[in-house]
Amino acid sequence: MLRRRETIIGMLFCFIAVMFVSGLQAEAKSKMQKQSFGKTEDGQQVDLYILTNKNGMEAAITNYGGTVVSLMVPDRNGKRDDVVLGYDTLDGYATGKAYIGATVGRYANRIAHATFTLDGITYKLAKNDGDNHLHGGFNKRVWTARDVSSNAGQALELTYLSKDGEEGFPGNLPVKVVYTLTDKNELKIDYSATTDKDTVLNLTNHAYFNLAGQGNGDILQQQIMIKADRFTPIDAVSIPTGELRSVKGTPFDFTTAMAIGARIDQDDQQLKMGNGYDHNWVLNNEKAGSLFLAAQAYDPHSGRVLEVLTTQPGIQLYTGNFLDGIHGKDGKVYNRRYAFCLETQHFPDSPNHPNFPTAELKPGQHFESTTVYKFSTK
Ligand code: BGC
Fold it and tell me: What are the beta bridge partners of residue 190?
């Protein structure tokens, strides 16, 4: 009898100890740092949130544009470097035109002639890329931030209400982006949104990666693999023609890892149109909407590996062809092809291509998508 009671007391003690330790862990995980990142021209306070994990990986994210400002990642010798381009100050982001690190929406990538028709109504969008609409304006908005850290890792929730008619898009659209830094060296991005009118939506993150460290030269030796047998060719103003073209025998075949620079300057009409790679690949994800390893990048010099997983149907590889001497962080200058972007997305100009996966969102539907940037070394 006495022994049974001792056993029960012992079990209770263990239970309390376990609860106490996991409570401490949860608390440790939730200690995200917050510091001021300045004020916008119209006086709104903007902050910088520093997420860390147990391996010393660190992500700095601002609620201005839902932007990843820096990402400190170890190389194969454990030396940390910042692997994304960025600016030192809020002003850089406020005046910058390259969408560096930003959350991009309402419609990431291009919409031809800045117009589309939905339910018989023709909508006219802001023309901000010649005659086309490009990327929308979420990157210049101040988002509402909340620490939502849990045992999954330190996490930052950012919310924004895109009003009916913003840049010409229909529907009030409350949108949420949650960044989670896990102990598996993943920066996980969960997007969600709803609408009160039929609309179109395409959300992505516009991080410019250089796995050798931001500002440390071009990315032409870094290797890319993309799990896609087809891509969407573009016209002279980077609008998809509507064709889904096989990558076989073209410089767009990244089904096995290839250095970005190996074929980038070949005499190829599509490469010329994009000024290099600036195209959407059609991901070979057989289970549409499930998390899928879409791409992998590798820097042989530092040993850093980046895996990109996504639930989205497409990915844009953009090789920084228009970077033109931008003054970035720590006095670094970003020249042409000093970074690559792997933008998970719906296909560009989907609202004008019924044969592309639909980017429509209707009242009552709940848009959800996830992209994971996972780092390791080899
Ligand atoms: C586009 C490029 C554009 C860049 C910066 C990329 O997503 O594909 O054409 O220059 O964003 O706006």
Answer: 178, 370
Over the stretch 255-313, which tens digit does the pLDDT of each residue have?
A: 999 999 999 999 999 999 999 999 999 999 999 899 999 999 999 999 999 999 999 99
CATH number at residue 368: 2.70.98.10
pTM of the model: 0.93
Question: pLDDT tens-digit profile of 46-75?
Answer: 999 999 999 999 999 999 999 999 999 999
Say if residue 14's pLDDT is above 90.
Answer: no
Among 26, 64, 23, 32, which residue's Cα sits nearest to residue 47? 64
- Across the chain, mean pLDDT equals 94
Task: Copy the structure tokens of residue 297.
Answer: 């990048």
Residue 23 is encoded by which pair of tokens?
Answer: 């409570």
Q: Which of 106, 103, 102, 65 is nearest to 361 (CA)?
A: 106
Regarding whether 139 and 288 lie in a shared domain, the answer is yes
Query: Which residues surround ligand 1 with Cβ inside 6 Å?
Result: 98-99, 135, 238, 278, 316, 318, 322, 343
User: Which residue range(s) make up the domain with 20?
Assistant: 2-29
Closest protein CA for atom 9 of ligand 1? 278
What's the structural domain count of the chain? 2
6 shares its domain with 59: no
Closest by CA to 357, choosing from 344, 348, 367, is: 348
Question: From ligand 1's centre to the CA of 8, what distance in Å?
Answer: 64
Same domain, yes or no, for 19 and 165? no
101 and 115 inside one domain = yes
314, 281 contact by CB (below 8 A): yes
- 271 close to 321: Cβ distance less than 8 angstroms: no
**pLDDT tens, position by position, 170-205:** 999 999 999 999 999 999 999 999 999 999 999 999
